[in-house]
Amino acid sequence: MLNFLRAIPAALIGLAACSSSSSNEALSPADPAKPHDNLSTPAPACTNLVAQPGEKTWTLVVDGITRTFVVNTPAKYDPRSAMPLVFNFHGYQINPTIEEWLTQMRKKAESAGFVLVYPQGTGSPLGFNGGLCCGEAAANKVDDVKFTAMMIDALEKELCIDKRRIFATGMSNGGFLSYRLACEMSSVIAAIGPVGATIGVETCNPTRAVPVIAFNGTEDPLVPYYNTGSRTEGAVPSTIAGWVKRDQCSPTPKETFRDHDSHCDTYSSCAGGAEVVACTIDGGGHTWPGGSVVPGDYGVTTKYLSANDAMWAFFEKHPLP
Questions:
Q1: For residues 128-142, average pLDDT
Q2: Dist CA 237 CA 151 (whole Å)
Q3: pTM for the whole structure
Q4: Strand-pair partners of 265
């Protein structure tokens, strides 16, 4: 477990039930890169499926452990028409309810039209095995990659899911797991959007170039932007450089967004039409850009960049080839 990770304040549990997102509408980066040529190809239609409730908690048994995940199906869901799927993995020591409060992603799922899933971690406190991070899940080598694969199988049996548009994001520990899924499930996960995270696995050999959009604050107190010790492989620049190399991108980025404290640099000309986008919040903390403001000493939450809007625009451009 990374020694700089600390508990989210208990106050968040109460705040999670409140609607406290900023009234200021955050902006999203404009990215001039063209989407895949096959983006307009319709997904196969589904038959023999029925409409699903707006929110429901599902259960699976994985390696003898009962696992749960909250499934949000938007009002526009049609069981005959394939819909994208987004996993949003929570941070260490929190849960799906707080993750939704923090990220406010359900609103985006409703407006954009995608199935949104909030998986729950294991252990006490709750966490996922993202490699180096976090807690009992990492220490006990819980197979959260297998859990993800089983969730996808279960969802595809009950919902009309577009197999080419399955994406992963997450905050902190959940972001670490998103990186791991890109490394180990690259034939299934189309693209990822980690927030407040770095790569936490020592070996990463995806079978294709995986599109990545990452969000990090330079003053993050839990996942430092720059490592100060002798180990530098976990620092944000090193994580981004690793994906630029894996995806065979041009090493020189182009700034594709800037507004006040936030800017995004895009590495293009990657293999297979992929891109790597590094969004940096100067002075930003361990927070979700455009999301709910976290109390305590977790740092600044920018209102000038919406991770949800930027991430979804990126995901739309990058289905599986």
A1: 96
A2: 32
A3: 0.89
A4: 255, 278
